[in-house]
Amino acid sequence: MSRPDLESASNQMVRNVPLYRQKRKFTCGPSSLMMVMSRAGRAISAE
After folding, report:
1. Distance between CA 4 and CA 25 in Å, rounded?
2. CA distance 42 to 18
3. pLDDT tens readout for residues 1-47
4. Can you tell me the distance from the alpha carbon of 26 to that of 20, in angstroms, rounded to the nearest whole number?
5. Half-sphere exposure of 39 toward its Cβ, with a 13 Å CA cutoff?
6. For the chain, how far is it from start to end, CA to CA, in angstroms?
7. One of this protein's Pfam families, by short name (predicted)?
8. Which residues of 1-47 form beta strands (DSSP E)?
């Protein structure tokens, strides 16, 4: 996946989950989102 595809996908995800933005679970932005996703991925793989 190329960088532009990754950014557009993350932007679409942020739009699809406004609740996360309201709760301020993570700040808006591909880098912050990727950090959250990588943590979630590690937690899932650890199980």
Report:
1. 24
2. 24
3. 456 676 676 666 555 555 555 555 555 566 666 677 777 777 767 66
4. 7
5. 7
6. 26
7. DUF3335
8. none
8 A C-beta contact, residue 16 and residue 33: no
Instruction: Name 1's Cβ contacts closer than 8 Å, sequence gap at least 6.
Output: 9
Q: How far apart are CA 45 and CA 3, in angstroms?
A: 24
Contact assessment for residue 12 and residue 30, using Cβ atoms and an 8 Å cutoff: no
Question: How buried is 14 (Cβ within 10 angstroms: 0-12 exposed, 13-18 middle, 19+ buried)?
Answer: middle
